[in-house]
Amino acid sequence: MARARLPVIDEFGYMPIDEEGSRLLFQIVTNAYERQNVVYTTNIEFSGWGRVFGDPNMATAIVDRTMHHGRMIRFEGESYRRTHALMG
Hints:
single chain; Rossmann fold; 2 strands
């Protein structure tokens, strides 16, 4: 991951992360902090990240690093997929 030009963590929180996965993601975020950009896509507010990680302290540390230099882009409105669905 350290060699990736732009790591993208897509659909963050869609599935819970086990303890080992949480530690690995924490290492990625910590190693990238102030050296590398990381993109997260998620529909989970920062306050819900503790449930995803299963550890509120780890989630707080990751949110802290993310918010320090981060930018949030919030998309609102209808889902592109839902709008262009073949079924419906």
